[in-house]
Specification:
Keywords: Cell cycle, Cell division, GTP-binding, Magnesium, Metal-binding, Nucleotide-binding, Septation. This protein is of the alpha/beta class. It contains five helices and seven strands; from the N terminus they run ββαββαβαβαβα. It has a single domain, classed as P-loop containing nucleotide triphosphate hydrolases (Rossmann fold), CATH 3.40.50.300. Bound molecules: guanosine-5'-triphosphate and magnesium ion (MG). Residues 30, 32-38, 52-54, 56-59, 78, 142-143, 145-146, 175-177 line the site of guanosine-5'-triphosphate.
């Protein structure tokens, strides 16, 4: 897809704030700091439209970005951030769960994991839950630039096996830094929204 226009739309704290134009939505899930906002910026070729930070847990709302008149990226708050209180985490869970289960225009969830490390308990729980609920998901293993190329296959295998990904399903190798996997990911997204 050629990105002619990309803009921030809203930081939504509840369903009444979700856009009503019924464009397809693609959500990003993943631990705080895994690189969700960076991946959005990479896909739309902008330096900092989706705010990135080295301060984990910064994004606490559902952030909508509109691409052309074609789709929304929905940047979900990062999970598994220890410094957030338990009550806050539970609130977060309900809010996100409601979105993922009930949002009609939602076409695909990109679940980001860090290629360097085996997926965490939170990653596994999230992935299993998405599969169980029948939410379409593409696992994206990012920050590939942080490890040598020769180790990519080994790390991809750990991601696959730790998440228990079904046969024939692969994580997508990605790096926002290198723009690695960008074209392949766009074609997966286009397919998901029937572009
Ligand atoms: P929250 O909004 O807190 O949930 O974090 P996030 O998942 O949106 O992460 P963000 O995109 O803000 O990135 C976190 C940090 O990782 C930043 O310092 C980024 O520059 C860095 N980062 C993200 N993606 C990559 C990547 O592919 N390679 C490298 N080397 N660094 C990355
Ligand atoms: Mg973010």
């Amino acid at each position: 897809m050629k990105v002619n226009q990309a803009e921030f739309i809203i930081s939504a704290v509840g369903p009444s704030q979700y856009p009503e134009d019924a464009l397809p939505e693609i959500a990003l899930a993943g631990r705080s700091n895994v690189g969700k906002s960076s991946l959005i910026n990479c896909l739309i070729s902008r330096k900092n439209l989706a705010r990135t930070s080295s301060q984990p847990g910064k994004t606490q709302t559902l952030n909508y970005y509109k691409v052309n008149q074609d789709l929304y990226f929905v940047d979900l708050p990062g999970y598994g951030y220890a410094k957030v209180s338990k009550t806050k985490r539970e609130e977060w869970g309900k809010f996100i769960e409601g979105y993922l289960l009930n949002r009609e225009p939602l076409m695909l969830v990109m679940q980001l994991v860090d290629l360097r490390h085996p997926p965490t308990k939170d990653d596994i729980a999230m992935y299993e839950w998405l599969l169980h609920m029948g939410v379409p998901v593409q696992v994206v293993a990012t920050k590939a630039d942080k490890i040598p190329k020769t180790q990519w296959p080994k790390h991809l295998k750990v991601v696959r096996e730790t998440l228990g990904m079904p046969k024939g399903v692969q994580p997508l190798l990605f790096s926002s830094e290198l723009k690695l996997g960008k074209d392949e990911l766009w074609s997966i997204l286009e397919q998901a929204i029937g572009y």
